[in-house]
Design goal:
single chain, alpha+beta, 2 helices
């Protein structure tokens, strides 16, 4: 560990450790921040609830993107390619919106 890097002790409470299931994400941004909304849309309903909102800087968002790309690459090396199902146009109502 370099002199500039410090070890961070990470704590997590039980409720946060249980996690939240999401199947929809909305991402918006302005010049100074990105807003990532994570939602759960129930099947056969036209309703979705925001379960978590993350507001972060552009540089942190890019680091998150790079970390996700690296982890997906490692996952696929170990378990095989992740397939994204292509469904009817109506299926595009649920998923990750860019």
């Amino acid at each position: 560990m370099s002199e500039q890097q410090k070890e961070i002790k990470i704590e997590i409470d039980e409720q946060t450790a249980n996690g939240l299931y999401i199947n929809l994400a909305l991402i918006s941004h302005n010049e100074t921040e990105f807003v990532l909304d994570f939602l759960f849309a129930q099947p056969q309903t036209a309703k979705a609830k925001v379960r978590s909102r993350i507001i972060t800087s552009p540089s942190h968002t890019k680091r998150l993107l790079m970390a996700l790309q690296d982890n997906v690459r490692k996952y696929e090396e170990k378990f095989g390619q992740i397939k994204i199902a292509a469904g009817p146009e109506d299926d595009k109502k649920v998923g990750f919106v860019m």
